[in-house]
């Protein structure tokens, strides 16, 4: 009798399995953040005793100028630190941006899901989307959703899991693909975003240190970043289909051994409800789109007329998305008979909030840790000292940009705010690289590559509890180790392929944006 040969896993897959096992042996996410917060308190005390500090040119938000500043560590391991922590527990929790966004948008998504509209919509979307295009579609929408900043984490990543599940793909692979697009491809977009405006402002001020007449505009990286969208989609699809899906294997509902059930056929009443709800959904989108057209639109910035910088469209993106899902969900529920009275509607609201209990627990601990990390200045000290080390290197433009990408990516693991970190980096690197003939626009591109690629494995990412909560919904045993083992391949592939793309761009001396070039 012949023995069945068992196909051995590759070295890479075995390593990822090991990362998942080790990572999931860690305590639950809430406890991890509590331990990290305690570690920050102790480290701040040690750093204060040893006199840790960092000196560098940093953008001062009060004076609106770049100034040489010495950043000292702030001690939490003291009476004054204890007083600060106790008096700010509630403020930290209530000021945790992702919490308010998640709770608000779940009122809309919860009703859309509870009514059955979201399930029907996804099933119809899957029916008309070729199977092979599902993954690239998810990665592409994820990359484009960074226009809405953090709303992509709250709204799209959970939806990506639902889409994959409806296509008989593993929902955790959907979370990975969506998260990779939203966060790993954070810098890439076919449109100019608020991030372009913020970072170019820092680059402009830093460039004026060397040349008062030099101007850096928001569109300075457009050609490169728009092209990057296609790179992210191709590489994200490759990793998802060739590494993540094969590694995760066949999906079993809630990890209890039950296979995915086939969706039941929709009744004629449900079909009618879906059609009307979809028209309502498209009508709301059309209304918002038409409202954006007039220069004096209520959705634009009342002073500048911009749809990006300071506009109501972006400032109210979460409430708008809540309405976008709530209204069609309500319509579907009424027509299908799911919502017969206000009590049924309330049950839909309460059911959606019930699913967030684990997220709220994690958010409480994460909000304290992130606040302590920022308050003690540990992230800023690491960034400035890392910048000083890189400044001492004496290598050519291409190796220098590659090293700069790695440094930006490494620092992003400790300080994920792109603007706060670049406020430290820009005054140091932009003038220094200008003396080597490297344009501020190229420095900004290299920074954005490194900053984006490691978002998806950063333990201090503010939206991390959202992703972990979404994973728990499909795999009760998943944890931070599962997340890192899924996302690490994206980080490596994005970092390598994006860096290669930059090298090719530099060798061909292609423009980075309108009037923005590689070299001075």
Automatic annotation (TrEMBL):
Keywords annotated in UniProt: Membrane, Transmembrane, Transmembrane helix
Signal sequence coordinates: none
Record-level Gene Ontology MF annotations: secondary active p-aminobenzoyl-glutamate transmembrane transporter activity
Transmembrane segments: 32-54, 69-86, 98-117, 137-160, 172-194, 214-239, 276-296, 316-335, 356-375, 395-415, 422-439, 445-468, 480-508
A Gene Ontology biological process term: p-aminobenzoyl-glutamate transmembrane transport
InterPro entries: AbgT (IPR004697)
Name of the protein described by the UniProt record: AbgT transporter family
Organism: [Clostridium] asparagiforme DSM 15981
The gene coding this protein: ydaH
